[in-house]
Amino acid sequence: MNLKNIIAFFSATVLLIGLIGCTPTIDGSSEEAFDSSYEKVMKEVPEKDKLRVKAAFAKITAKKTLEAASEGIFSKKEIEKKIYAVMNGKTANDILKLAGQSEIKEEK
To answer: What is the 8-class DSSP label of residue 49?
Structure first.
């Protein structure tokens, strides 16, 4: 590899790391963290996709609530723990995938 290729590779790597770090994710460590990170995630979702992402959150929440009930868990706090755990670290696209929907298409 010559110096030009090394610089190009390094630049592309730095750019990729920067882009990855900019995508907000859900923080499921607490109710407050979840609420705050949900707002950040939704802020980055294009207007045309907001309803789909909200519906995906609702679908996952309903699914985890029903799973908890079938396991005999009825405590709101325990159900929230299950919901936060499954969404923790997820991006809007991850949430869509969990709900069985297609990812957000970037406009060009």
So the answer is: G
User: Are 77 and 37 spatial neighbours (Cβ–Cβ below 8 Å)?
Assistant: no
CA distance 22 to 19: 5
Rg (CA), the chain: 18
Q: Tell me the pTM.
A: 0.77
Helix/strand/coil percent split, the chain, to 5: 70, 0, 30
Position 20: which residue type?
I
DSSP state of 21: H
Q: At what angle do helices 50-70 and 31-44 cross, to 10 degrees?
A: 150
Contact predicate 103/93, CB 8 Å: yes
Q: Write the pLDDT tens digit of every residue in 11-54.
A: 555 444 444 457 999 999 999 999 999 999 999 999 999 999 99
